[in-house]
Amino acid sequence: MTESVSSDDSLEFYSTLTRESFQYNLTKLPEGRFSPSELLVQSYKYWSLDDLTKSLGSLLHEIDQELIDLVNNDYLNFIELGNSIDGSVDLIHDCKIDLNGYIRDLSVSNMKIDADLETVDSLLLYKRKLSVYRAVVNQLVVLEEQLTLFSKKIATADVRELVVLFLSTNKIYSALLKYRSLEMVAVAGKKIAGMKIELKSVLDSKLATATDDEKLQLLKVYSVLGEERAFIRAVRKKDN
Fold it and tell me: What membrane topology term does the record carry (predicted)?
């Protein structure tokens, strides 16, 4: 009895079994399940066993040859790599020695830089202090000139001129009060105090012979100096 072939049978004939066709036939199997018998029935049922065996053998030989070529290529590359680094061990050792020396030199340099930075900071602080001292000295020089001028004019100058001179001198000293711990500033403070005493003495002597109008003018001067009570005492002393 002759077996009939249904019209929906897939008559797929391959003259050569290739990797691509074999992979394609594998994709037609249910996913996640590989069955050699199912693969043969589905895709190679019209192949003769002899042709299928030869084709599979050729495909296996092709794959084996590719694997051998890959191994040989990698081996050759490995040999070339070995040859390329031949003699490099000593060079690497020398580089390591040089690097260790560089690290030591770098550490020494860093320590020197830190020391230099500390020195720079100290010098900058010293410079700022010198700038302050120079400004203080300049103010003291001006103040001393004012004191000298006051001493020269106290016997002959007008009261108004003496007061202006005292106030300007006292203003300079007020700016130096934050440096009163310095001996020069402290000495200047004592001179200012003596200057004020001399000025009050002059004012008191003027007040002793002053008219009423002159007393009003002198009261303003005493007020500017913050010596209103001294004015009152001087007036009472005169009246008595």
Answer: Peripheral membrane protein
- Residue 165 near residue 146 (C-beta atoms within 8 A): yes
Q: Residue 174's domain spans which residues?
A: 130-239
If DSSP codes are grouped into helix, strand and coil, which group holds residue 130? helix
**Between vectors from CA 143 to CA 142 and to CA 149, what angle results, nearest 5°?**
90
Please report the DSSP string for 43-101 in residue order.
HSTTS-HHHHHHHHHHHHHHHHHHHHHHHHHHHHHHHHHHHHTTTHHHHHHHHHHHHHH
Model pTM greater than 0.70?
A: no
Q: Tell me, yes or no, whether 142 and 232 share the same domain.
A: yes
| Cα angle for residues 144, 219, 188 (degrees, 5° grid) | 15
- Say yes or no: 71 and 147 in one domain: no
User: Angle at the Cα of 124 (from 122 to 125), degrees rounded to 5?
Assistant: 65
Whether residue 196 contacts residue 225, with contact meaning beta carbons closer than 8 Å, is answered with yes
pLDDT in tens, the chain (240 residues): 334 434 344 445 555 677 777 777 778 777 776 677 777 777 777 777 777 777 788 878 788 788 787 777 776 666 666 666 555 656 666 666 677 777 888 888 889 888 888 888 888 888 888 888 888 889 999 999 999 888 888 877 688 888 888 888 889 888 888 888 888 888 988 998 888 888 888 888 887 777 778 777 888 888 878 877 877 777 777 665
Domains contained in the chain, number: 2
CA 156, CA 142: separation in Å to the nearest integer?
Answer: 22
Instruction: Collect all residues with Cβ–Cβ distance below 8 Å to 131 and sequence separation of at least 6.
Output: none
